[in-house]
Structures are given as structure tokens and as C-alpha cells.
Hints:
The protein is of the alpha/beta class and about 240 residues long. The protein has helices at about 40-50, 75-90, 100-110, 140-145, 150-155, 170, 195-200, 220-225, 225-235, and strands at about 1-5, 15-20, 25-30, 55-60, 95-100, 120, 180-185, 205-210. The chain has a single domain, classed as 3-Layer(aba) Sandwich (Rossmann fold), CATH 3.40.50.1820.
Amino acid sequence: MESLFVKTEDNVKIAFNLYRTGHKSVVIICPGWFMTKDSKAFSILAEGLSEKYDVIAMDFRGHGKSGGFYTFTSKEILDLKAVVEFAHKNYEEVNLAGFSLGGAVVLIYGAEFKEINRIIAVSPPCDFYKIENRMWHPNAWIPTFKKFEPKRWISVRPSPIIRKKVKPIDIADKIQSPTLFVAGKNDVTVCPWHTEKLFKKAVCEKKLEIFEDGIHAEDLFLAEPERFLKLCFDWLG
């Protein structure tokens, strides 16, 4: 695994891990708020995906080893754009796998840019301001406690400025890349209706997968790793 950096158009340093396994296709893992490329969940996922693809796991701005401050989807598309440009210089096919707010970013990116081969959006919100985020619910705080990683927590830097955001639901019908929408039926952070609504509006080649006992984002993978990886392998081809 190599630790690399790129610079965004607005001069923010973005860190990513490259799992180079000799494949012609790459999957870019895009974590959500409060998660990083070095989170245990994404390190394990990257290793699993690297069986069939090269993998890039990135830190959005304001997280991990990246610079800047997190803007909750307002500017993170610039971070992904810089990483995608690196990927296109090295791979024939570039795929995106985004989780939670990272899922929102990959959808927004897929609507604006057409060069992505396939997209996986896991627990994406259709509108940032409609996210439920019921932190007091056991399905929210217990998984958060289990994933407690001190280095990750102290690395997160949110922006104090409220910025205008693109609503994924407003651009879902502009996505051209084939897109897999994934949600957990018992998700109390971003309830599954968000993903279902995005799926219904999308007009690209698409598929919806609901984990009946699942909760939020990367927790779907942690709870059922074999099923989750098979779903990704089947979709990405």
C-alpha cells in the first residue's frame, strides 16, 4: 500500500492510499463524515476489493491526513476530482464507491462528469438538510462506539462556514454512469427512504439493494462482508 497526495483546484492537499495489485480497473473509496481512508472498516474493505481491482481509499478535506476543512459536500467534489484525475492517468476504468456523505459526493460527481465507469452509493442522503441522524438510537451510537479510533476522531476538522450544497435528489436524473444504490432498512442516520427516492429518480442503468437487517454505510459491510463484497464484484464486473 502506498500513501500518496494530490492537490485540488483550490489548493487543498488530499491524501489517499493506493492498493496497487496490477489490475486495469480501480475503485475509489469515498468515506463519509468522521471516517477516513485509514479507518479499520475501509482498510478491510480495500483489502477485500483489491482481489479484483486496484483500490484507492481517500481522505476528504478536513479528515485524516488531508488538509483544509470539511464542508459537508459543498467542496468535496474538488477533492474527488483531483483523485479521479490521478486515477485516469493510471487506469483504463475508474469506479467510485461512496458511503453516506461520500455517497452523496459520488452521485454529484457522476452527474457533472461522465468519465466514470460505474458507481456504488451506500446510504447516500437525498438532501443534506433532511438527514435524520438520530444519534441517541442504539443503531447509531453502538456502531459509533465500536468503531472508536482516537487518531481518526482528533483528525476531523469541520468548516465553521455554512456553504450552499447541491441536493443529490436534484441531480439524480443527470447521472449517466451505471449506479448501484445500497441502503440498510434499519438505518437511523440516513433513513432508507433517501436511497430509495434517489434510485427512483435516476434514469441511468441502476440497481437498488436493501440490507433487511442492515444499518448505516460501512456498517453494512462490517455486518455482512461476504455479501457486500459479492454485491460490489457483481456490479463492477
